Amino acid sequence: MQTSILKEYREALLPWYTIYPTVPEFTATVRPESYQEWLRGLPADDPVSLYLHIPFCRSICWYCGFPTTIARNQGPILDYLAVLRDEIRLVWEQVQQGLVVNDVHFGGGTPTLIGAAEFLAMIQLLRRRFAFRESATIAVEIDPRTFTAEIAEAMGAANVSRASLGVQSFDPIVQKAINRVQSEAQTAAAVEELRRHGVSGINVDLIFGLPNQTVESCVQTAAATVAMRPNRLAVFGYAHIPSVIKNQRLIETTALPDSVARAEQAAAVAETLVAAGYQEIGLDHFALPDDELTLAQTSGRLRRNSLGYSADTCKTLIGFGASAIGRVGEGYVQNEVTRESYSRHIAAGRLATSKGYRLTDDDRVRAVIIERLMCDLQADVPAICAACGFDPTRLLDSAAERLAKLAEDGIVDIENGFIRVRQEHRFVVRAVAAAFDAFLDRVVPQHSQSA
Questions:
Q1: Which positions are annotated as binding [4Fe-4S] cluster (predicted)?
Q2: Of 394, 374, 367, 371, nearest to 382 (Cα)?
Q3: Going by C-beta distance under 8 Å and a sequence separation of 6 or more, which residues neighbour residue 379?
Q4: Quick check: helix, strand or coil at residue 253?
Q5: Phi-psi category of 426—alpha, beta or left, where left has phi over 0 and alpha has psi -120 to 50?
Q6: According to the annotation, is 110 in a ligand binding site?
Q7: Residue 168, marked binder
């Protein structure tokens, strides 16, 4: 791809389309009362997923854009967990008591900082409040630098099936530049401990485009990670937005690779992983042939939600904790972002919803098209519209100018409304999805990085 086209598409400030419409479209017109009504309307026999946000870390990684707080001791964490338990009760009071749970995800921050006893207590509480399927998946994000044998044992006892480990880079020069020093030995020990306690699904997050990063160091990190044989990897491009993310101001801008170098890094990592037997999944994931993501992609069941690529087919995601995002049939909701505001709402006996978005029929069909493009690198727009009872003409007409340019630049092939992203350009699939974004000219750039 020519350098000018590469820069135009690859470095475009576009949403990551984990959800549509994206968070900048959320408004305060969706209030706690709205969410309460939506929860009450959930079908009792329709399985749901749960997300619990634990916004604490022992130190701040300078690249990270997630809302988190430094916790030097357990006091603030224990206070937060008490509020989280109250929120779970408030939500439980609105829904059918037998609401079926298919997936649970603990995100952060560093969820394992809550400690072994508190983690087990939280799992037990969720099982008392909701009806877990026997096959329910429980996933936890961990930081190998603070991971302990005790929490590994607790995860095993709780039947955790998947753990996601943040690595980013094993290059000590890069690690120093992002304030995240983590050895291969620490990471390998965490993987071994997890597997020893029955946590068989291992995910690893890597990032390219970091300060002082090179193609060589990216490949070395990928090779070291492959040696641990995780089931899947997420390979994100670092998004430098210091005007929005204050801790990124500590990163030396002049040390960041340019767009061409970033593309070379991403391609080199992908080549390394594919050569090691991993299959490309959507935009930025890689998985072993027998991983559920690969199987979901093969069968057309791959999904994309606020947590990224997933095999989870639940229509409803209930989010708990400060800043957590959820989705129910009518639309999206997000909790108060700050812990203080979130806690005040829950202490007052009301849901902590600060904003959200009520979906229209137009939003829903656009969301399906965007999801299929992001997951399958192709979308049959007329067929999707027909399944939704929607006329494809208006959507295709509104996207015509952008699609024509994408086709002219060799990014996509289009035939009778069927859009296919060329495999060599999968890294710019967001630009194709953006053709169907009705809010594109008003969106604020989003980023996607690992905890």
A1: 57, 61, 64
A2: 394
A3: 369, 372, 373, 418, 419
A4: helix
A5: alpha
A6: yes
A7: yes
Amino acid at position 32, single letter: P
C-alpha torsion angle, residues 174, 177, 178, 184 (rounded to 10): 40
Q: Does 109 appear as a known binding residue?
A: yes
**Residue 61 annotated in ligand binding:** yes
The SS3 of residue 89 is helix
* DSSP letters spanning 15-29: ---SSSS-GGG-BTT
Q: Which domains does the chain have, with CATH numbers?
A: 1-21+361-441 (1.10.10.920), 23-320 (3.20.20.70)
Residues contacting 146, CB < 8 A, separation 6+: 58, 110, 112, 113
141 is in an annotated binding site: yes
Taking CA atoms, 253 is separated from 207, 287, 451, in Å, by: 16, 32, 21
Cα separation, 398 vs 391, in Å, equals: 12
For residue range 205-242, what is the model confidence (pLDDT) as tens digits? 999 999 999 999 999 999 999 999 999 999 999 999 99
Peptide bond into 237 cis (omega under 30): no
Is residue 63 part of an annotated ligand binding site? yes
Q: Where are the alpha helices (DSSP H) in 276-360?
A: 292-298, 339-347
Q: What is the DSSP letter of 147?
A: -
The amino acid at residue 296 is A
Arithmetic mean of pLDDT, 23-50 = 95
HSE-CB for 308 with a 13 A CA cutoff: 22
- Does this model's pTM top 0.90? yes
Residues 6 or more apart from 89 whose CB is under 8 A from it?
129
Closest CA to 130 of 316, 346, 325, 337: 316
Please name the amino acid found at residue 25.
Answer: E
Q: Which two tokens stand for residue 209?
A: 């485009």
Question: By three-state DSSP, how is residue 440 classified?
Answer: helix
> Distance between CA 412 and CA 185 in Å, rounded?
43
